[in-house]
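Might you be able to check the backbone structure tokens below? Thank you kindly.
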Amino acid sequence: IEQQEGPPEQSPIMLNISSSEPALLEGAYDKIRAIMNDSHDLIDVQSDHDERQFEWQIKVDKEKAVKYGVDAQIIAGFLQMSVSGMKVTSYRPSNLNREVDIVIKFPPEYRNFEQIKSLKMTGKNGLVSISDFTKFTPIYKVKSLMRINGQRAIVINANIKPGLVLNNEVLALSKKIKALNLDPRINIAFAGETED
């Protein structure tokens, strides 16, 4: 097998979504990506944005927590134990030169978002659901930032089914995107083969 040198092959459809208002990009991306995913004529829809990761931000409503008789520090410890575990002690085995942490954590099947939201803690009047006094918000983390003409950008690539005409597919996709009535501060530009 011989490896080909040179730039990677581009997809026939390459769509750049950019804006000087980064907060607008997520919503525009989600809408356009849904259109492209739902299309029967487009295949292999991918984006540099697919690799975004998120973490959960958990905010405790202190007034509600007090009302239920649950201490904020206990809530934090409980959540830490349920998500990543909590170190309770350490020991040094005779066959190692370092200490080993002893960590208590929930089994993997209980370390998912829905399970964590349904956890119950002991309050002043008995068991209370953790979701009664907490708010869970996903915070997206971007691995790398792409810029086009100095603006934050997201690129979506797609192939078309064999036998279809690229120009027709670009026109159909353009109409669907236009029908979304996106914020005018969102810039949509076709690139790659579609740029011609």
